[in-house]
Amino acid sequence: MLNYIWLGLVLCSIVVGTVNGRLKEVTEAAFQMAETSVTIAIGLIGIMSLWLGLMRIAEKAGIVRFLAWLLTPLFKLIFPEIPKGHPSLGSMLLNISASWLGLGNAATPLGLKAMEQLQELNPVKDTASDSQVTFLAINTASITIVPTTIIAVRASAGSANATEIIGTTIFASGCATIIAILASRLLRHFFPVRKEASHD
Amino acid sequence: MTEILRSAINILSEALVPLFIAVVPLVAMIRGVKIYEQFVEGAKDGFNVAVRIIPYLVAILVAIGMFRASGALDWVAGAIRPLTEAIGMPAEILPVALMRPLSGSGSLGLVTELINTHGADSFIGRLASTLYGSTETTFYVLAVYFGSVGITRSRHAVLAGLLADATGVLAAVFICRVLFL
Q1: How many domains does chain A have?
Q2: Domain tally for chain B?
C-alpha cells in the first residue's frame, strides 16, 4: 500500500507542480525535507538514549513485566495474539500513558521500545504483524488529555480560557482511537501477511 | 470541579517524568540491578535507532514535502469542499484537516495562523485547536515506528491511521458545534 501512496504523492506533486508553475519549489522541497529528516533523526539520539537507558533498568528490575501483568486483562482484548505478561505490553502502557499526558518526547522512545519488543514476536520481519498495526494505529490517533502545544499557542494568542479545548480534544481523539482499534482489527483479513513476497 | 481536575492533570503531567526517573533506578537498586551499567547498555541503542529511521523518514518526508510545495493540497481541498461544507465544517478548517496527517509543523502553522486571525476563543479557533490535538501526524509516526524495526510492508496501517484521522476530524466538528456554536 505504501508503494502506491508514495508513487501517488510524488507523481501528483510533479504534475500539479508543473501545472501550477511551482516545479522549482517542488524540487527544493524534496532536497530540504531530505535534510530535515536527518535533523529530526539526529535530534532524537539524546532523548532516545536517555529513555532506552531508563527502560533497560526498568526491564532488569522487572518493572516492565509488572506493568504488563497489571494490564493483561485490558490488553488481552486489544492485542489477543501477545502472550500473557510479555514485556511489550509494559512498554506499550508507558508509551500510551506518556502520550495521554502530552509528553511527546518521552512517548516516542517508549513507543519504539515497544515496537522492538513486538518485532521479537513477529514471524515475518519486513511485514507488520497484527499487533504492530494496531499499536501504530492507536499511536496515530493518540488520545491526549493535555494537548500541551496547542494550549501554549492559545495562551500566547490571548485566549480567555486556553484549556477549554481539553474536553473536546479528549472526545475527538477518543473517537479516533476507537476507530483505529476497530479498523486495524476488521481490515487485517484484507491485508494478509505474505511470507514468500518478503524479498521482492 | 473542572478546575481541580485540570490542576490535578497538570501536576500529574509535570511530576510523572521526574517520578519515573527517580523510582525506576531506586526499585532496580533495591532488587540488585547494576543500574549504571544497565543504563549505559540500554542507552547504546539510542544512536542506532535514530540512525536506522533516517531512510524511512527521508522517503516519507520528501514525498510529503513535494506534495505540499506543489499546491496539490489546494486541489484536494477544492474537490472535497462541498462534502465538508455539508457537514458544517467551516472552509477555513479544511486545510488544517488535510495537513494534519501529513505534517505536524505544517498543521501547527495553519492552526496558529487561524487562531491569530480569528481569535483563540472564536468557533474557528476552538475547532482548529481541537482538531490539532486530536490526531497525530500519521505518516511521520508510520515512518519512525515501522522504520525503527525495519518494516517496509505496512499492510493496513496507513488505512487504519487515516480512518482514525477522518474520525477525529468528524468528531471534532461534531463536538465543537454542539458545545461552542
Answers
A1: 1
A2: 1
Please enumerate, as own/partner, the contacts of A93-100 that have beta carbons within 8 Å and a separation of 24 or more: A93/A67, A93/A68, A94/A55, A94/A64, A94/A67, A95/A139, A96/A138, A96/A143, A97/B16, A98/B16, A99/A139, A99/A142, A99/A143, A99/A144, A100/A143, A100/A144, A100/A145, A100/A146
Cβ within 8 Å, pair A106-B17:
yes
- Does any domain span residue A174? yes
- Nearest chain A residue to B177 by CA distance is A168
Q: Do the chains contact at B49 and A44, CB–CB below 8 Å?
A: yes
* Residue B25 falls inside a structural domain: no
Domain assignment present for A172: yes
Q: Which of B61, B131, B133 sits opposite A144 (nearest CB)?
A: B133
Mean pLDDT of A99-108: 80
A200, pLDDT greater than 50: no
Q: What is the domain extent for residue B68? A: 53-180
Residue B38 forms part of a structural domain: no
Segments forming the whole domain that contains residue A76: 50-193
Residues of A in contact with B149 (CB under 8 A): 115-116, 118-119, 125, 132
Cβ-Cβ contacts under 8 Å, A176 against chain B: 134-135, 164-165, 167-168, 171
Going from the first residue of chain B to its last (181 residues), give the mean pLDDT of each consecutive group of 10, the final group possibly shorter: 68 79 94 95 90 93 94 91 91 92 90 93 95 89 94 94 94 93 83
Question: What ipTM did this prediction achieve?
Answer: 0.89
Given CB atoms, is A152 within the 8 Å cutoff of chain B?
no
Residues A24-59: pLDDT tens digits? 999 999 999 999 999 989 988 998 899 999 999 998
- Residue B158 forms part of a structural domain: yes
Q: How confident is the model at residue B157, as a pLDDT?
A: 95
B5 CB within 8 Å of a chain A CB: no
Tell me if A30 is assigned to some domain: no
Residue A1: which pLDDT band, with cuts at 50, 70 and 90?
confident
Q: Do B45 and A49 touch (CB under 8 A)?
A: yes
Q: Domain for residue B80, yes or no? A: yes
User: What is the reported pTM?
Assistant: 0.88
- B33 vs A contacts (CB less than 8 Å): 57, 60-61
Q: Does residue B103 come out as left (phi exceeding 0), alpha (psi in the -120 to 50 range) or beta? A: beta
Within-domain flag for A115: yes
- State the maximum Cα–Cα separation within chain A, in Å, rounded to a whole number: 60
**Cβ separation of B70 and A162 shorter than 8 Å?**
no
